[in-house]
Amino acid sequence: MEYVIVDGRILERATAKVDIEDRGYQFGDGVYEVIRVYNGKMFTGKEHLNRLVESAEKIRMQLPYSPEQLEEKMEELIAKNELETGTVYMQFTRGTSPRNHVFPGADIAPTFVAYTRKVPRPEESMEKGVRAILDEDIRWLRCDIKSLNLLGNLLSKQKAAEAGCFEAILHRGEKVTEGSHSNISIIKDGVILTHPADNFILNGITRQKVLEICRNEQIPLEERAFTLDELSAADEVFSSGTTVEVMPVVEVDGKPVGNGEPGAVTRKLQALFKAEIERRCGKL
Ligand code: PDD
């Protein structure tokens, strides 16, 4: 039996329903999070739940639960579904009310949905590396909000998938921003470069953890937007995100990155990231 949460209550998946006038369904008017689960434990759960609250505030939505209450609910759902390795997805929308661009009144409560999914660590891809394409970033100017509106991301990811690639690396003109579903960093002469956490990217929790690791290990890093030319001259490129951890990118638009193999710095970050997971969630 699979269980989900609808409006705070754990239900059987088959009985869960959302109204057709839910604002998430009609407008994409809501926010979400995806949290990794290893050995039945959430990895960086608090960080994700704090970002969920921040995303909600940025769209002027008040969540009816505190991060602590949400953490408890997610733990309950993970236990109920006996999830070992996977993800927990949760979203809040601005509730159900007759379709109108104006926000509904304070009497309309947000709709809260959550479910779990078994997802293995992508070990083979992490070992061999993945391919990416380049695509113009056509998204809105508040990519820092983890909003349900993902059309720009989907169009780019679909293009990548049709080209047999894992990710689309997005750029606004000459400047690289992030990936369609992950953050992108490059390494040149031992220095890590990644876009600063502003309105043009989602400040990935994985990105933040990787940067923290770099600071602790005295691996040089610069948070600044790099150009397409810098990307194509990079020694190493990697993508980072909840489901993909630290993923080497070995080819961009058909051209090998460095020697076409995952590089030494990316390998080191992968190992340090895995150690961080094991420190928090136990042996992988
Ligand atoms: N995506 N940038 C974008 C556009 C993303 O969609 C994601 C994550 C990230 C990485 O963020 P984090 O490290 O916090 O997962 C960056 C999630 C997993 C998704 O939409 O499924």
CATH class of the largest domain reads Alpha Beta
Beta-strand content bin: 25-35%
**From the helix content, strand content and strand pairing, which structural class follows?**
alpha+beta
Q: Which series of helices and strands comes N to C?
A: EEHEEHHEEHEHEEEEHEHEEEH
Give the terminus-to-terminus CA distance. 26 Å
Q: Could you please say which CATH topology of the largest domain applies here? A: D-amino Acid Aminotransferase, Chain A, domain 2
Assign a percent range to the helix content.
Answer: 25-40%
What's the name of the CATH homologous superfamily of the largest domain? Answer: D-amino Acid Aminotransferase, subunit A, domain 2
Mean pLDDT: 98
By DSSP (H or I, 4+ residues per run), the number of helices equals: 8
Radius of gyration in whole Å, from Cα?
Answer: 19 Å
What small molecules are bound in this structure? N-(5'-phosphopyridoxyl)-D-alanine
Structure description:
This protein has 284 residues and is an alpha+beta fold. It folds into two domains: 3-118, Aminotransferase class 4, branched-chain amino acid transferase, N-terminal domain (D-amino Acid Aminotransferase, Chain A, domain 1, 2-Layer Sandwich), CATH 3.30.470.10; 123-281, D-amino Acid Aminotransferase, Chain A, domain 2 (Alpha-Beta Barrel), CATH 3.20.10. The chain has helices at 23-27, 45-58, 67-80, 123-128, 151-162, 205-216, 228-232, 264-281; strands at residues 3-6, 9-12, 30-38, 41-42, 86-93, 111-118, 130-136, 167-172, 175-179, 183-188, 191-194, 221-223, 236-241, 245-252, 255-256. Strands 7, 8, 9, 10, 11, 12, 13, 14 and 15 form a nine-stranded mixed beta sheet that branches. A six-stranded antiparallel beta sheet has the order 2-1-6-5-3-4. The longest helix is centred in the last third of the chain and has 18 residues, at 264-281. The radius of gyration is 19 Å and the shape is globular. The site of N-(5'-phosphopyridoxyl)-D-alanine (PDD) has 15 residues, from helix 6 and strand 13. Its EC number is 2.6.1.21. Homodimer. Pfam families: Aminotran_4. GO terms for molecular function: D-alanine-2-oxoglutarate aminotransferase activity; pyridoxal phosphate binding.
